[in-house]
Specification:
114 residues, alpha/beta, D-Maltodextrin-Binding Protein, domain 2, 22% strand
């Protein structure tokens, strides 16, 4: 097979893939975010600073997005229980993690989405 026919075949295959992508990906992008409730996991007991911040964020998320955002406290093991629960949840953006990383002089809130 000559080089020219290989190039033509490769270009045709690329064209087929590029034309097929919108049909396949179109349904994935059709849903607005969020389409269902959001869970914010806090690895500390209720009543602390991190929990209060999470509840304020949940209220603002609910107002802004029109979907309920709930705070799920999972204390214990220096935050590992909550972090493990988030790590094992589906990576779809509906489970958020609000933890704290400590520096020598201050505690810094850390917010991540899975």
């Amino acid at each position: 097979m000559c080089l020219r026919s290989r190039i033509v075949r490769a270009m045709l295959m690329c064209a087929v893939v590029v034309l097929a992508i919108p049909g396949v990906a179109g349904s994935a992008f059709a849903q607005p975010y969020p389409a269902r409730p959001i869970a914010i996991v806090v690895p500390f007991p209720p009543g602390g600073v991190t929990d209060t911040l999470a509840r304020l964020l949940a209220q603002k998320f609910t107002e802004a997005w029109g979907q309920p955002a709930t705070v799920d406290n999972k204390p214990g093991a220096a935050g590992m229980i909550g972090a493990t629960a988030v790590a094992k949840s589906p990576a779809n953006g509906y489970t958020l993690f609000l933890g704290v990383t400590s520096a020598p002089t201050a505690s810094i809130p850390v917010f991540s989405a899975v």
